[in-house]
Amino acid sequence: MPPSPFPPPARPEIDWRALHRIDEAMRQEVNATLVRLHNITSSEYAALSALARAAPGTPLRLNELVDATSLSQSSVSRLVDRLVEGELVERHPCPDDRRGIHASITAHGFEVALRARISYLSALRQAREALANDRELAPYTARLFGDP
């Protein structure tokens, strides 16, 4: 048996846990909405929106999608495979690097991203409103986002 009880959580632990709960709740709401309405995940939406925001006709290297999605290189590679399979993205060899791969959004992918954006923003608002009504998390959401 330990000699004394473990100390209660310190303020940084409480804040970190609250931030994690907010992040997880928002991710779950956004992901569920995008899958239900558009058959894409929130990570796929992040990649599509990054590709859609690139200058017209400008492909992005996969490492740029790593930054846009916060996923690992191998996860982005699999994600792009799924998007290519769904005809949302095209994959191209990088002209100045034999090992590099570029991805560009298709017209269909752009339309899906545009429609999904509306649902994405709505899901973010809904998640924020739900969190604002959570007694423990409301002070954090107010500081992060302001009042809903």
TrEMBL record:
The keyword DNA damage does not apply. GO terms for molecular function: DNA binding; DNA-binding transcription factor activity. It comes from Embleya hyalina. Coiled coil: none annotated. Residues 12-148 form the HTH marR-type domain. GO terms for biological process: response to stress. This is MarR family transcriptional regulator. It comes from the Bacteria. Keywords: DNA-binding, Transcription, Transcription regulation. The keyword Transcription regulation applies.
